[in-house]
Each structure stands twice: as C-alpha cells, then as structure tokens.
Design a protein that fits this description.
By secondary structure, this protein is α/β, with parallel strands linked by helices. 34% of the residues lie in helices and 17% in strands. The structure holds 2-acetamido-2-deoxy-beta-D-glucopyranose (5 copies). Keywords: Glycoprotein, Glycosyltransferase, Membrane, Transferase, Transmembrane, Transmembrane helix.
Length: 512
C-alpha cells in the first residue's frame, strides 16, 4: 500500500521534515471520519492487504477470520474505542493509571490521586489508599499494583528517534509502602509531563511535535497546569518564553534536574497530537482550531512586538520631517516576505525574483530566519505581510505566523518533494485559512539537471527514488538541490497572489 511504502521509505527520517506519516489516512479514518467511513476504510484495509495494519487498532489475531465478527460489533464494540467524543481514559477514578496507546503518533497516560515524582528512578508514583487486601490487579512487584512505561514524545512510530527519548515509569503502589518519599513541593493544579528531546531544535518539529500538541493537551486547563519536562533545555524555555505563560501560569519543572518530590493530584504524561501542524476542532473539548492556536500566538507576541515598535520609534523620533508622509490616496503596497535559504534549496536567482515581485507592485522583504532569530521578530514580519514565498523546508512552519483569510503562501516545491511539501505545509496552511499556492518547479529550474543525465530517473521519475528510501530523498532532493526560478512561469503565481490580495483589500474596504 502506498502509505505503507511511505512509512518504510521515510521511517528513518532525519532532521528536517523527517519522517512521516505512517498510515496517513488510516489516522484520519480512525480519528476523524464518522463511523460509516471508518467502516469503509477498514473494509478497504482488510480487502486491500492493509489488514496487516488492523492489529494496530484492534487486537485481532487474524483480521480476516474476524471479518464477520467485525461487522457484527460495528454498532457497539467499535464505537467505544472510536468515538472521538469519548476517547480512551476520558474518565478515570482516583488511584488509577490509564494509558491510551491506541494512536500511532503518541501514547498518553492519565493518573489521578496521590501522585509523587521521583526523578532519580525516572518514576512517577501513584499511592493507592486502598487496603492491601483489595482485589485491584495482580501485584507486579512487591507493592506495585500497576507499572506502565511511557516515552512522552509524539513520534511513536519512528523507532530511531524514540530510542533517544527518556522513558518514564508510572507506578501505582500501596500507600503503606510510602516511607521517606514525602512531598517537597505540593501543587494544586495538574501536571502535564512531556519531553523536549528528539528533534527539538528544528522549528518544524518544535511546533509540530511540541508546542501544538502541548496546546492540544493543556488547553482544557486554561493555564492552571504545571509542565514537567523531560530532556529539559533552558534554550527551549527561553525560545518559547512568550508562548509558555499562555499555556501554563506556573514555571516549568526540569524533571531530571530537580530531585525534589513534586506532588500532584492529577497528571497527564505524553501529549495528544492530531495531524501535521494543526488542531482538529472535532477532537477538542471546546472546538478550538488552529486559528485559535494562532490567536494565542498573537496575544503571546503582542507585548514584545509593541515594545519593539516603540523602540524603533524612539530611535527615529525627531527625524519625522525627513521622510515625507505617504499621500493619502496612494494605496499601500501589498507586502511580500521571501523566506530565504542559503545552500541547499536556495533560490539562486533570488535577486531577479525580488525585482519581478517589485515590478508587479509588491513591497518585498527578504528574511533569512536563523535558529537564533527571535520568534517574535519573525512573527512581526509575517503578521504584517500579505504574502510569503519560500522553498520547501522547515522554515515553512512560519506560515503559522501569517494572518488567516487574507494572506497568500507560495511554496516552491523542488523535484522529489511533492508529497512532503503538500503534507507538512500545503494542507496545514489551507486548514489555517491561507490561500496556498504550490509551485512545482520544472526540471529546468532544478540544479539537478546539471548533475544528472536528462534521462536519469532522478529527473524523470523522482517518486521511484523516493520509494527507495528516505536517505535517497534526503541526499538527492533535499540536500543537493537548488532552484533557479523560471520567472516567466513563476510570474503567473505572483500575479495570482497580487490579484487575490488586492481583491481581499477591496472587499474589506467596501465592508468598512
Ligand atoms: C482523590 O485523591 C486525592 C489525593 O489523594 C484527594 O485529595 C481527593 O480528595 C480524592 N478525590 C476523591 C473524589 O476521592
Ligand atoms: C479478584 O476478583 C476476581 C474477579 O472479580 C476473582 O475471580 C478473584 O478470585 C479475586 N481474587 C481475590 C484474591 O480476591
Ligand atoms: C540530585 O541527587 C543527586 C544524588 O543524590 C545529586 O548528586 C544531585 O546533585 C542532585 N541534583 C539536584 C539538582 O539537586
Ligand atoms: C462545538 O461544536 C458543537 C458541534 O458542532 C456545538 O454543538 C458546540 O456548541 C460547539 N462548542 C463551542 C464551544 O463552540
Ligand atoms: C497582527 O496583525 C493584526 C492585523 O493587522 C493586528 O491586529 C495584530 O495586533 C497584529 N499582532 C501583533 C502581535 O502585532
């Protein structure tokens, strides 16, 4: 199956758009579609060799032999697990640990009761007040009633990166075994425990695997929640210092760097994640969408941006007369930001692109985000722009900073990156409400024409190379390719963007 091949193809994915979506539409079918679609998807899977996937969702020993059972239980058996409005573990009682391991992207465990951290043994204990003669479950190890292990990172299907993530033990124990493990810090709000390891350091992963899942998981607490972080990085806390207080009103805890026993009455370990760079309202308690997430970003960056603007004004105060005011009837030009890259996937004739865009009527800003560039500054640029152009890559994640409903995002798609470009940025950008234009370059616009024979599959059939494995995609198409835009061809997209923006502006003027 296509998606299964993709999984094999990309599962060892590396640093950037990394790996991938195993079972892309399996996930959708599983989570989002209503029952009839779930059934048709399952039927399709079962009949088209996808039945090998079925055990991931149901503990069928043999999917085929259970085909009839399966239809027999469709109205009750399945709905319990699949009804998105009542996800697994949605109601747990005091003193229990419940883990939902049904999603392919992440595991998540819930605990309620007398919860105490113990970082020297990478454990979180849940002390049960139940008497020792209680018939809870078989005793695992002495006083242990239940022992769950979890790696709280959202790329569960990528074994290579998961191997680097710290594992946490969630152990429920009888209270009478509680010696010398008294609370050093008592919290009266829940904990959300997650890792900032893995691919953290790449902006796409920071938002996709971290910040957005954190929003999804913690939004219900309305900032009354403490973040407990595994593989804690000071730089991460600093980089997201504007956003974090809008998710949690309390300072985050460095799980490994803080030996104190933190006590909670509720804890969630692991994060929920919906899809690439998005929030699915159907799966949220209060229907929040990616637009609500973006509104949170806007609130988060406002104080800093107000400060930056004031500073800039102070610098130029007293010089006001030097620059004549724009004439009243002279319309403001639409602003276009080019997210520029050096090296691989750079646009080698960027200066000509800039000229062409200016001729059409754009005010062009070239931005080259570095890992150290303050996010508020990038937000300020993009929130005040009407269009953004960039070559497929992690920096495209900044489309999240553009204003929904009135902005255009043009993604330049180098050879061999169609699928990743659409999956990681194209579709999510549309979900945010941007006008998305994907520009697939022609062979002539790729630097690979200089390296390969015109009949080489690298040029004629990129998908065959992608199928050979992620290393091929990465080495050939991501790391060794630059783009020389054919401006005759590309100009059409620029014009389309310009027309779209002027039309939107006119409409909003009419309404005003
Ligand atoms: C659950 O456990 C916590 C911590 O031991 C306790 O404070 C709370 O009262 C308990 N709630 C119920 C409903 O038993
Ligand atoms: C525990 O409960 C199960 C079912 O409720 C019962 O079969 C079993 O005998 C009980 N065990 C003990 C030790 O009470
Ligand atoms: C945690 O405990 C270990 C061993 O007792 C000690 O070496 C370390 O310094 C402690 N760390 C902190 C942050 O207190
Ligand atoms: C969420 O959506 C449901 C169904 O569309 C609707 O009934 C409900 O009022 C919505 N809730 C909020 C908070 O918008
Ligand atoms: C983003 O742009 C909108 C529309 O111009 C503006 O209302 C908002 O204040 C801006 N946000 C920030 C943080 O500057």
């Amino acid at each position: 199956m296509v998606q299964h091949q993709r999984y094999n193809q990309l599962k060892n994915g590396g640093d950037e758009e990394a790996a991938t979506l195993v079972f892309v539409w399996t996930n959708r079918g599983y989570y989002r579609r209503r029952r009839p679609k779930i059934l048709s998807f399952l039927l399709l899977s079962l009949l088209s060799c996808g039945f090998i996937l079925a055990p991931h969702f149901f503990s069928f020993s043999s999917a085929l032999s259970h085909l009839s059972d399966f239809f027999g239980v469709k109205n009750d058996g399945l709905s319990g697990d699949l009804d998105v409005n009542a996800p697994l573990c949605s109601s747990i009682s005091n003193g229990s640990v419940c883990c939902d391991r049904s999603h392919f992207r992440s595991d998540i465990c819930f605990m309620k009761g007398d919860i105490r951290t113990h970082s020297p043994t990478s454990s979180v204990f849940l002390y049960s007040s139940k008497n020792s003669d209680d018939n809870v479950s078989s005793t695992v190890d002495g006083d242990e009633l239940q022992h769950e292990k979890i790696k709280p990172y959202t790329r569960k299907w990528e074994t290579s990166i998961m191997a680097t993530i710290d594992e946490l033990n969630l152990i429920s124990k009888r209270r009478n075994s509680d010696v010398d493990h008294s609370c050093d810090v008592i919290h009266d709000v829940p904990a959300v425990i997650f890792s900032t390891g893995g691919y953290t350091g790449n902006v796409y992963h920071e938002f996709n695997d971290g910040i957005i899942p954190l929003y999804i998981t913690s939004q219900q607490f309305n900032t009354e929640v403490v973040f407990v972080i595994l593989e804690y990085h000071d730089w991460w806390v600093m980089k997201y210092a504007d956003i974090l207080p809008h998710l949690s009103s309390y300072p985050p805890i460095d799980f490994n760097g803080d030996n104190r026993t933190h006590c909670f009455t509720e804890a969630i370990t692991g994060l929920r994640i919906h899809d690439e760079l998005t929030v699915d309202p159907i799966l949220m308690k209060n229907n929040e969408s990616i637009v609500d997430f973006r509104n949170l970003l806007d609130r988060a960056y406002r104080p800093r941006i107000t400060g930056l603007i004031r500073k800039a004004q102070e610098k130029t105060s007293g010089c006001a007369l030097a620059t004549p005011k724009r004439m009243h009837n002279q319309p403001k030009k639409p602003k276009l930001v080019i997210l520029s890259r050096k090296g691989s996937r750079a646009i080698t004739n960027q200066n000509i692109l800039v000229k062409a865009a200016e001729e059409i009527g754009f005010e062009v800003h070239v931005l080259r985000p570095e890992p150290t560039t303050e996010l508020a500054k990038i937000y300020m640029e993009l929130n005040s722009s009407d269009a953004m152009i960039g070559v497929h890559g992690a920096a495209m994640t900044h489309f999240l900073f553009m204003r929904p409903r009135c902005s255009v995002f043009i993604q330049v798609i180098p050879l061999g990156t169609d699928w990743a470009a659409e999956t990681y940025y194209g579709e999510p950008a549309r979900k945010l409400g941007l006008k998305y234009i994907g520009y697939k370059i022609s062979r002539r616009e790729s630097s690979l024409v200089d390296e390969y024979d015109k009949d080489d599959p690298v040029l004629t059939d990129p998908s065959s190379l992608n199928q050979k494995g992620w290393e091929y995609t990465k080495k050939i198409y991501l790391e060794r390719q630059t783009v020389k835009l054919d401006l005759t061809r590309f100009r059409k997209r620029l014009l389309r963007a310009y027309d779209y923006i002027t039309r939107i502006h006119l409409q909003s003027q009419h309404l005003a």
